[in-house]
Every structure is written in structure tokens, then in C-alpha cells.
């Protein structure tokens, strides 16, 4: 992809991307901009520190963090009510960050990460550079991330025991930003290695 017309919003140098990465790093000043709808713009992003003790190649995986209010107005379930009640320790309700993996990484890993991270919000140590690793290519648009956050909630609701008969809810997105989480790649397997100290 050659983006002839696009210039770094920081220094004005032309921006290029070899892959489909929507996060474009300026080769002149290092600033990262978001490429969307044929334009480059500023983007807020953070980088989480990697944990020690993992083997494999360190890769920083981009996620869209969709902060949203989730208000369930009405829910009717038949059967499995008791088991649902018992397993309701991790509720997907209220205001929270929805983690939506935005990288071109096999779906099996993204699906699991999205659910686990959204249910058990990790405590992160942030760092200022992609130390010791490289960035994974970001391929998902912001708007799609919002839809995927809502799908994540619906998947969660349908996977817990009992038959979901009625679900009325409001899903309101407050903000969306980019977060890079460290993962370690061995052969074709990815394992998140987030520092919690
Ligand atoms: Zn620049």
C-alpha cells in the first residue's frame, strides 16, 4: 500500500505502510497515526509492559478498548436458572472496558482473549515504547470494534447455561482507544504475557 497523499500530522513527512496496518508509524519522527477512511488522524494509544519469564517472540498486539455502559433492562431465561445464578460471579454489566483484538492474529486466540480480558479487567503497567518487540499489524476499524464489543456481550449471554428467551439492553459507547498488549509467539501459538506488578 502506498499512501502518496498522506503526511505525518506531527512533522509532515510522507507516510508509508508496507502492510495493511492502520497504525502508521512515521519513519521520520516516530509518531503513530491512525489511518481510517482515507485519512490519517491522531490516535490515543497505550502500551502495556510485558511480563518476564516467557519464551518466544515478543509481539505487541493492538486491541480496541471500547468503554461502554451496558444496561440490561429485561432478561428472561428458561431452565438453568440456578447454574446461571451460581456462575454469575463474573457479570458483564455496567460500565466497563470491552477488549476487542484488532490484529490479524488467528481468531481462536482473539476470541478467548476478548472474553477473558473483558470479564477480568487486567491491571496494567504502561510503558512508553515497544521495548524488545515489534507491533502486530492492526486491521480492524474503530466502528467494527464497537460492534464486536456488543457481540461479545451477546456471546457471553448466550453461552451461560439456560435458554435465553428475551434480552433487552442498552449499549452505549463512551470512548474507544487503542491498547497494545504484549504476547509471546512460539510457532503459531500466541500467549499473552502481561506484567501485573
Ligand atoms: Zn512524523
UniProtKB/TrEMBL annotation:
Domain of life, source organism: Archaea
Name-wise, this protein is Uncharacterized protein
Organism name: Methanocorpusculum labreanum (strain ATCC 43576 / DSM 4855 / Z)
Show the taxonomic lineage: Archaea, Methanobacteriati, Methanobacteriota, Stenosarchaea group, Methanomicrobia
